[in-house]
Amino acid sequence: MLPDQRREKIVEYAENNGFASLQQLAELLDTSESTVRRDLEYLDGKGQVRRTRGGIAYVGESLTDFEERTTRALSQKQRIGRAVAELIEPGDSILLDGGTTTLEVARHLVNRPLQVVTNSLPIAQLLVNSPETELILIGGYMYPKTGVALGPIAVEALRTIRVRRLIMSVGGITKEGMFNSNSLLVEAEQRMLETAEEVIVAVDAGKFGRNALSKLCDLDRPDRIFVDSGLNENWKDILSSKNVEMTIVE
Amino acid sequence: MLPDQRREKIVEYAENNGFASLQQLAELLDTSESTVRRDLEYLDGKGQVRRTRGGIAYVGESLTDFEERTTRALSQKQRIGRAVAELIEPGDSILLDGGTTTLEVARHLVNRPLQVVTNSLPIAQLLVNSPETELILIGGYMYPKTGVALGPIAVEALRTIRVRRLIMSVGGITKEGMFNSNSLLVEAEQRMLETAEEVIVAVDAGKFGRNALSKLCDLDRPDRIFVDSGLNENWKDILSSKNVEMTIVE
DNA sequence: AATAATATGACCGATATTGATTGAATATGA
DNA sequence: TCATATTCAATCAATATCGGTCATATTATT
User: Fold this and answer.
1) Residue B5: CB less than 7 A from any atom in strand C
2) Higher pLDDT, A140 or B18
């Protein structure tokens, strides 16, 4: 097997399982631990994966990525995306955060007369040739896996922008608030929150009760949350007690 | 089997499988490893496929298919792109302007250890998943036709950036200087000129003697110009009298 | 047909990768 | 704390791959 191919498989395996031990990988790839060790060193050096004693852990959206793979979660994302897009009115100016859910929203915005601001490369790619849509891209350091622009350049660019609606997704929601896994991302998203009149959060129910690294904002900060019908009653009560408008998509 | 036919099969196989080893290919095509090796060198040179030790990996979306079959001017662009890319050293920080010629340069930068700054969406798309390459995207208003970011946001972002080399292409070159067709673009490019230690212009010979809307800079502003061999002697004299280093690609 | 130009396959020294081994560093558990 | 068991980083010999060269075969041109 080719070295690059092997490394790709390692990343893939780590993505799916969140963690992988040296032995597992050596057996899976039918190679020696030495080689795996060298590969991990290489991949870690590049930030694709984080080494831990005895193996590796996937860095980034590990848990969510896994869930995204399941078709059920995906089709829910699509439904959520459509529902959010239906809310958008002609001539709106909207800010689209990166993420697979917001990408689903963007799919429904092609060829609609809108001003769209985004820091997501895939979303920009989708909308750049949409004739009716005026597209403004937020630049910055490109985070490789998800293709979103982060860092000081992104934050600075967001300072000069005002939009009617922000559509964002988050990595986890607990009673303490909304979370995401990457602190650079959270910093950019906090700036986004300041630029929008109305904040809309689009998540699948699986994110509720799950924690992540950095706190993004309080639970009552969004004006509206779009979520699929998998949300349990307890959470519905909590949200309505916080005066967050909720749209259950099915 | 014809060489071109054989190469086409190699690309096809790589597309389908993601990876292909030398041995696999040699067997599949019923030819020697030497020949396959030469083919891979050729295909890698065109950016259609990425060589890795022991074989090849398929690289990104094949815009190439479309461009491959077009005029001679394009293959000159490819050659220029390759020549410019050879100049770039590991660890360099470079700023890539938008345009088809610079896109050809970018094809040869995939998987090389570099810091790349660009305002071009297609170039970003090409490099975002190149693991060795750190990518910084300049945002702004997206100009639909060419997919480059322009306007005040782009200009502002460029103010905070310094790079070793700027690689740009221009719409026209006359004795009065370099020109481009869009004044927003020229404004951004003038800012780019300020951020780079060394300015490299990559153009095909057809641009010489041609005018365009907005003046970008004087003829002697670039440190180096890459151009194909179609450039006539008169222009060579003019450029050398201006102390611009010239590389004739062929 | 003769010649030139190009493509091919085999070979070889240089280089990179691999797997095993070792002692050092770190974690585990009494 | 100490003893034991893992895991780690470094090293080395064996192996695989690379780039270049050369003789031969194929194709194009005169």
Assistant:
1) no
2) A140
